[in-house]
C-alpha cells in the first residue's frame, strides 16, 4: 500500500460494525472509494476474538443480524462460529472483503481544515504508514481487544491451577474432569458455566459477588420457523425482526416503569426452572432494578438445567484470597478448583485507542458532546458506531450507517468538503451511557458527553431512533456544512 493512498471514506475495524458500514457504502453509495483498516489478522471482531466454550450471542439473531441481509433460520441465540460465518459471508457478498487491510493498527488521525482531509497514521509490521481520507468512520467497538478486565486477587500467584480470562482462552486448556470456578455473573459467565458443565468438567461453580437478572428464552424462534414456511426467508425475517424489537422495547419500558412487576415475573420464571427450595433470592435476585444493567438471556434455560442436574452451582460471596488449591471466601468457605476463569468483564476503549486531533489540537473525548450518538462536536467529517446497551448492537449500527450515507450523499451532490456538529454551549450535559455496568462506570468520565436536548441526546430506543434519524433534516442548525 502506498503511503500516498487516498480514499473517500476510511473505516476503522472489520467486525460486525465495520463490515456493516462498508456494505452500506457499497450498496447505497456506489462509486465511493473506501478502505477498512483491521488491526488483527482476520475479520469478525468480537466473533473471531472470543473462543471460549459456548460463546454465543446475548441478543437474538433476528435483531443482531443486519437489516439488509437476513439471518437465515430460526436460531435465536446463535453460537459464535455461526455469527462469524454470517459476518464474513456478508463481507464477501458485498465485496467488502476486497477492501480490508489486515494488520493495520491506527494510532493517530489528524484533521486539517486547509485540505479538508484526515491524515491517518497506522502501524503495519513494525513500520509507520499514512493514508488520507475525506471522511473517517470509527467502527472498532468500545472495548480493548488486547486486554480484558482482570482485577488482581489477593494471593492469586499462589494458585497452582490454571487462571484464564475468557477474552484470551488458551487453545491447550483441557477442562475435562476438572473442577472449574467461573468468577462473574454477566453474559460471559452464564454462557460459560453450562457449556463447561456439558462438555466434561467435573463440576462448575459460578462465583458471583452479587446476582444478575437471568432470563430463559427459547433457543429457536417458533414464529420465524412458521412464517418462513408460509412467506419465505426474507419476509419472515423482517416480520420476526420487528416482532422482537417490539417485545424488547416493551420489556425495557416496563422494566423502567414497573420494576417490581418485572422483578417478580423474572423471579417466578427462575423458580419454575430451579429445584424446589433453591435459594433463588440469594443467587438470582439483584439489588438493582431490571435493566439498570444488561439482562442475561440463557437459551432454553441451560444454566438452570445445569444447576438442577448438579453439574453446576452458584455461590454468592466475596473473595478473601486465592489459595494453592482454590479460593477462600469471606464467609470462610473454600472452593476447590483446578481451573479459575475470571469472567470479570471488559476494558472500555473508544475509537480503538487512536488519538484524534483537529488542526493540531488533540481531541479530548470527554470535552466533546456526541451528536445523535454518532458524531462529535467540533470534529469534522467523523462518525463512530456504538450500539445499544439495552438491545442488539446492530440495530443502532444499521441506523448510524444509514445516516452517515445520507450525510455523504449530500456532501457529494453539493460539493461540500466538510461537515461538523457545532455545540450550543447552553445545552446541558449528562453521561453518554447511563448504564450501571462496571466496564462503563470505570471510565465514564473519559467518554464524550451527551446533551439534555435533541439532537444531542441518546434515547436507547430503536423505534424512536429509527423515526428520528430517518426523518431528520440534515439542515438542522447543528450540522455546519462548508
From TrEMBL:
Keywords: FAD, Flavoprotein, Monooxygenase, Oxidoreductase
Coiled-coil region: none
CC cofactor: FAD
Listed EC numbers: 1.14.13.-
A Pfam family it matches: FMO-like
Protein's UniProt keywords contain Flavoprotein: yes
Keyword tRNA processing: no
InterPro entries assigned: FAD-binding_MO, FAD/NAD-bd_sf, Flavin_mOase-like
GO terms, molecular function: oxidoreductase activity
UniProt record similarity statement: Belongs to the FAD-binding monooxygenase family.
Family annotation (PANTHER family): MONOOXYGENASE, PUTATIVE (AFU_ORTHOLOGUE AFUA_8G02570)-RELATED
Record protein name field: NAD(P)/FAD-dependent oxidoreductase
Amino acid at each position: 500500500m502506498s503511503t500516498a493512498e487516498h480514499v473517500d471514506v476510511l473505516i476503522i475495524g472489520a467486525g460486525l460494525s465495520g463490515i456493516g458500514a462498508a456494505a452500506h457504502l457499497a450498496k447505497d453509495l456506489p462509486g465511493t472509494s473506501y478502505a477498512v483498516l483491521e488491526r488483527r489478522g482476520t475479520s469478525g471482531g468480537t466473533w473471531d476474538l472470543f473462543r471460549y466454550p459456548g460463546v454465543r450471542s446475548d441478543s437474538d439473531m433476528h435483531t443482531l443480524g443486519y437489516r439488509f441481509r437476513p439471518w437465515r433460520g430460526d436460531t435465536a441465540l446463535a453460537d459464535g462460529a455461526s455469527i462469524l460465518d454470517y459476518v464474513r459471508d456478508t463481507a464477501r457478498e458485498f465485496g467488502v472483503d476486497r477492501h480490508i487491510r489486515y494488520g493495520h493498527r491506527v494510532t493517530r488521525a489528524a484533521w486539517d481544515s486547509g485540505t479538508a482531509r484526515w491524515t491517518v497514521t497506522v502501524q503495519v509490521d513494525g513500520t509507520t504508514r499514512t493514508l488520507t481520507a475525506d471522511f473517517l468512520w470509527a467502527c472498532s467497538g468500545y472495548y480493548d481487544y488486547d486486554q480484558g478486565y482482570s482485577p488482581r486477587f489477593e494471593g492469586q500467584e499462589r494458585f497452582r491451577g490454571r487462571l484464564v480470562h475468557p477474552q484470551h482462552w488458551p487453545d491447550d486448556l483441557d477442562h475435562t474432569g476438572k473442577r472449574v470456578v467461573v468468577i462473574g455473573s454477566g453474559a460471559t459467565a452464564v454462557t460459560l458455566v453450562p457449556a463447561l458443565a456439558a462438555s466434561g468438567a467435573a463440576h462448575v461453580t459460578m462465583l458471583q459477588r452479587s446476582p444478575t437478572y437471568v432470563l430463559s428464552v427459547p433457543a429457536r424462534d417458533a414464529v420465524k420457523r412458521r412464517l418462513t414456511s408460509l412467506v419465505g426467508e426474507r419476509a419472515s425475517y423482517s416480520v420476526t425482526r420487528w416482532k422482537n424489537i417490539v417485545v424488547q422495547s416493551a420489556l425495557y419500558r416496563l422494566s423502567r416503569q414497573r420494576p417490581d412487576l418485572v422483578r417478580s415475573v423474572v423471579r417466578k420464571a427462575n423458580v419454575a426452572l430451579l429445584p424446589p427450595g433453591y435459594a433463588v433470592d440469594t443467587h438470582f435476585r439483584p439489588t438493582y432494578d431490571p435493566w439498570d444493567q444488561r439482562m442475561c438471556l440463557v437459551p432454553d434455560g441451560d444454566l438452570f438445567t445445569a444447576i438442577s442436574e448438579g453439574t453446576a452451582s452458584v455461590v454468592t460471596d466475596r473473595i478473601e484470597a486465592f489459595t494453592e488449591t482454590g479460593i477462600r471466601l469471606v464467609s470462610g468457605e473454600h472452593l476447590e478448583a483446578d481451573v479459575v476463569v475470571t469472567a470479570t468483564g471488559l476494558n472500555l476503549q473508544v475509537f480503538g485507542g487512536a488519538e484524534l486531533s483537529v488542526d493540531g489540537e488533540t481531541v479530548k473525548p470527554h470535552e466533546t458532546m456526541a451528536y445523535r450518538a454518532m458524531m462529535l462536536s467540533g470534529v469534522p467529517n467523523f462518525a463512530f458506531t456504538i450500539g445499544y446497551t439495552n438491545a442488539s448492537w446492530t440495530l443502532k449500527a444499521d441506523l448510524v450507517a444509514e445516516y452517515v450515507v445520507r450525510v455523504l450523499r449530500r456532501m457529494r451532490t453539493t460539493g461540500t468538503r466538510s461537515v461538523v456538529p457545532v455545540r450550543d454551549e447552553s445545552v446541558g450535559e449528562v453521561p453518554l451511557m447511563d448504564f450501571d455496568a462496571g466496564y462503563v462506570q470505570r471510565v465514564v468520565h473519559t467518554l464524550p458527553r451527551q446533551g439534555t436536548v435533541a439532537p444531542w441526546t441518546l434515547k436507547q430506543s430503536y423505534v424512536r431512533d429509527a423515526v428520528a434519524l430517518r426523518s431528520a433534516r440534515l439542515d438542522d442548525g447543528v450540522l455546519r456544512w462548508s
